[in-house]
UniProtKB/TrEMBL annotation:
Source organism of the structure: Pseudorhizobium tarimense
Pfam families: HTH_1, LysR_substrate
Entry protein name: LysR family transcriptional regulator of beta-lactamase
Domain (HTH lysR-type): residue spans on this chain: 6-63
Keyword entries, A-Z: Activator, DNA-binding, Transcription, Transcription regulation
Record bears the keyword Transcription: yes
Family, per entry: Belongs to the LysR transcriptional regulatory family.
Magnesium found in the keyword field: no
Gene3D superfamilies hit by this protein: Periplasmic binding protein-like II, Winged helix-like DNA-binding domain superfamily/Winged helix DNA-binding domain
InterPro entries: LysR-type_TF_proteobact-type, LysR_HTH_N, LysR_subst-bd, WH-like_DNA-bd_sf, WH_DNA-bd_sf
């Protein structure tokens, strides 16, 4: 595409003035004089044949023509600035957009992410969390770490590891849980997956009591509630190992129920970038260490 000469100085002056609604503040940002900004905007108005600002006694008012022009310019300058910031010491920084279940992000990924940054200092991970409901395409993600059975439409999924659930509670509650029947007398904190507590009691070889406790869409919130002494959570000990190690939480019974695995997923239509390849290989290595670690 052959582009006409772009009056970049004039466009930059207009964009800054439009954001500040002031030639003076735009001049301070651009390190030029107020008169220079005003002149550049005037030249742009002459070239376009429209009025971009109405000059008022105490500032500027942008016209409809100016409002039409501003979003494209702002986005273009932001994208150029973002790209330039990605160059450092002769290297271009790559961006990896990652979505992850909040429990996995807090309990497993964040404690290990420093290792990835050390190995790949020019890859910036942009992490967003979710409650296992994610749209990779709509959210512009390279990868999504999900919990389930690995069956997602048009998605390439690599199994990472299982994270079996067990009963977790504060020591004061654990002290009064002498039998499985005692568990049923406590407030049972649960997720929206209705089969988890019944599955845990089945694994223990006993019938489940009526499950009527609060429902959470995040194990992080559920366990935080348990840490307040408000009940017994059914959550993956692997993701809350720091709380168990510190003694803030206890696992009163060595009984587990597995309802799925964590998976590293991406769209089949998304060709892996070098950053994605590096992250995928690192995740495979870290997940293998977790699978082979002693319980």
């Amino acid at each position: 595409m052959v582009r006409p000469h772009l009056p970049l100085n004039a466009l930059r002056a207009f964009e800054a003035a439009a954001r500040h609604l002031s030639f003076t503040r735009a001049a301070i940002e651009l390190c030029v004089t107020q008169a220079a900004v005003s002149q550049q905007v005037k030249l742009l108005e002459q070239r376009l044949g429209v009025t971009l600002f109405r000059r008022l006694p105490r500032g500027l008012m942008i016209t409809e023509e100016g409002l039409a022009l501003l979003p494209t310019l702002k986005d273009s300058f932001d994208r150029m600035a973002d790209m330039l910031e990605r160059f450092e010491a002769g290297h271009m920084r790559e961006v990896l957009a990652l979505g992850a279940v909040g429990t996995f992000a807090v309990g497993w990924l964040l404690p290990r992410l420093g290792d990835f940054r050390t190995r790949h200092p020019f890859i910036d991970v942009r992490l967003s969390t979710n409650n296992n409901r994610v749209d990779i395409a709509a959210e512009g993600l390279d990868f999504a770490i999900r919990f389930g059975n690995g069956a997602w439409h048009d998605t390439e999924a690599e199994a990472l590891f299982e994270a079996p659930l067990s009963a977790l509670c504060v020591p004061a509650i654990a002290a009064r849980l002498k039998s499985l029947e005692d568990v049923g007398r406590e407030t049972l904190l649960r997720s929206y997956r209705v089969d988890e507590w019944p599955g845990w009691f089945e694994a223990a070889g006993t019938a489940a009591p009526p499950i009527t406790g609060p429902v959470f869409d995040s194990s992080v919130l559920m366990v935080e509630t348990a840490l307040q002494g408000a009940g017994v959570a059914l959550a993956p000990p692997l993701m809350f190992s720091r709380h168990l190690a510190s003694g803030a939480l206890e696992q009163p019974f060595p009984i587990y129920v597995s309802k799925g695995s964590y998976w590293l997923t991406r769209l089949k239509s998304h060709t892996p970038t070098p950053a994605m390849t590096a992250f995928g290989e690192w995740m495979t290595e870290m997940a293998a260490e977790t699978r082979h670690a002693p319980n």
